[in-house]
């Protein structure tokens, strides 16, 4: 609050100020701080930010203010905050620098992933710190554009070891979606005593006691209301309390008071306030230019507005309160607002700010106008190129409304719907699809509309809900755009395989649709061959379709891939290489996919790429590498607010480690996830994981039950096939040889069709379990040889374990010891604890004493510390590690200091030879 031009202590806000002072002291001590100051309009949030500002001596301060009319302009709020820091852009990694420059419209390029922009912002803040703390203040953060708010929320969750204090003031509302779960300071109304003190400080004339009591009661301690509402009272009302009781919400009463004050001003002053309210940037030169076009004396009008306590005109235009802005906009009618929008459109330099200009131009347009609609469409393209899908949707939506031609109107409405879908606004996207279909869409447009409906249903509800629409869309698109049709069939296949046993028709319907397309001979592009091969596997059997799949997968290994094709088709090719037991192709293609996603900052694809890769690494026996990928996938999940990646990574990894509690936790979390209930493949994956776990623990009845459920739906392929392998081992141990033989026949058929070392090795291992004498011995040896050739070390180690167990039962103890020792060493090195324990027990029975594993080091590191240390071993720098794990270099350094202290080392070089997995706690 201000008295005689000097700021004093805020009345009744001692506790709140103490919280802010402590955070500022923490930043000065080198630690990060984040706080959301939340409360109703007028409660004093801005004054608390000003309190921080007054005490920020020796700090670098950057500020931003959210403006309601700017919510459609992507990255506008973030640009406002970061603009003073852009000189530090050269100090952050190039991919991040390019992402931020593209987002801010400083350079052209592919639309940056919003999480890469978030990481770039984090790095920029860290780079800007220097010798003084950085104080970031954001007022009215509820009105930031969506991607700016998401980016700042991302940054807030990742700040840790930087002297940065981020404080966001948010107006309280019914929704808690904005900056939820961040540290919060709830600002409530003043107490009665403080309310009286504040009211007495602003009322200079006589005030009836009953009127004072009523004002204090009605304002509920709201400081702005206490200051502003008495201005609307007449002398008679103040002296005697004569007046009509107010029933409107408090914010409406305050705004009404501002509205009365505005309407009491001369018309030119009201117009100047309207110009300032309409153009959110606060650019004084733009305000003056628009005022001149409307014949307003800007200096005189500004003086009158300042005298009324409504606005100040300095370097920037500042309103007394956001409610003044909304009151100024409401004070006049539509025609007056339209004239102001037109004046602003004429005043804005179209070469510098084309989006702002066309937005005002559209607001000044009263009827259909193709020229304006075309400019809006162009602006949408620029916004999309910067990653601003919400802004692109707004521009396209308005463009559709101004388009006179019904064909173009439908196309623009459909484009707006697609942008809304990409921004996650599913209800709005559906409404725009409805509007598009009411226009004159051609056949391709109608197919695209159906495709979009399917994508919306898949994202908003479940894979099974979207599947019929995706299938219909692919059929409609096939005669006109075969490439898009193939992509749609691919997405339909994903939906069907994901929905699995819960889908009506499912993958069978998709397969029949693929094969019913004219010209499907299996000799087309590698993409088409993938679809055709899978379709023939489903409809005609593995023996017919698998060779086509193998040929298509080989084509992906040999040929070049564009960025778009690689990100779109490599995940599918990886899955098909797994389904055909081509481990070499799966290893190569999954590595290429991860590299491609990382290099391009494609964070929409990278999590699933990491999961495909970590599954491959588990079968390769590289559980430590898989754990590293799980940490990276989990980091992305933390950044995006999704725990799925961490749980699915654990579902694949933990069974082989033999950790029952963490495996069960992952299974329960995924099966109880409300968003995954429509996905039958979750059942297959969780039951396979349970089967692996219990086979490792030697609990074969439980393994058998899980494996039976895991292979109930063979059309899902993937882990359904792997469940059959687990079934054979459990069934043989339980003496259920007929069921085992049935599963072995299927495995043998697939192996003969595939012909890969992995398939033939798995087949030999399965047949060995049902054989006797020298035949069994020969099959065990064949399995080990083939699996070694394939590089599938986990399966190879398990084959050695089974051979060793068989040799011991055959009383060939010397050979058993050799084989079991090999298995134990491989499991122990991999960290496959349960299987290692099985091997140890067998060795003990064979007369070999093996001690349980004792870590050489006693230090205990968190999963994140282990991963950072492992990346240090790999030669990564702190910025590179930060980019991989969504941390700033300062935070990486902070973690490394803790690692050094725990390990008792003083340099990165000393970490190089340490066995880190022995020190890891459960993630």
Structural topology:
Elements lengths: L1 E2 L2 E2 L6 H15 L4 E7 L5 H10 L5 E6 L10 H7 L11 H10 L10 H14 L6 E6 L6 H13 L5 E8 L12 E3 L5 H11 L6 H11 L3 H6 L6 H6 L9 H14 L3 H12 L5 H10 L4 H10 L3 E3 L3 E3 L2 H9 L3 H14 L6 H10 L6 H16 L3 H14 L3 H17 L3 H13 L4 H18 L2 H15 L4 H18 L6 H11 L9 H15 L1 H17 L4 H17 L3 H17 L6 H14 L3 H18 L3 H14 L2 H13 L8 H17 L2 H11 L8 H15 L3 H18 L2 H13 L3 H18 L2 H17 L3 H18 L2 H13 L17 H11 L4 H8 L3 H15 L4 H4 L12
Parallel strand pairs: 3-6, 3-7, 4-5, 5-6
Antiparallel strand pairs: 1-2, 8-9
Helix pairs in contact: 3-6, 4-5, 5-6, 11-15, 12-14, 12-15, 12-16, 13-16, 16-17, 17-18, 18-19, 19-20, 20-21, 20-22, 21-22, 22-23, 23-24, 23-25, 24-25, 25-26, 26-27, 27-28, 27-37, 28-29, 29-30, 30-31, 30-32, 31-32, 31-43, 32-33, 32-34, 33-34, 34-35, 34-36, 34-42, 35-36, 36-37, 37-38, 38-39, 39-40, ...
Please supply descriptive tags for the structure shown above.
disordered N terminus; two-stranded antiparallel ribbon; 4% strand; 46 helices; globular; 923 residues; mainly alpha; 66% helix; single chain
The side-by-side strand order for the widest beta sheet comes to: 4-5-6-3-7
Helical residues, percent: 55-70%
Global outline = globular
Detail the poorly predicted runs: 1-7, 234-248
Write down the Rg: 33 Å
Strand elements, count: 9
First-residue to last-residue Cα separation: 49 Å
Fraction in beta strands: under 5%
Largest sheet: 5 strands, parallel
Q: Count of DSSP helices?
A: 46
Helix-strand category: mainly alpha
Mean pLDDT: 85
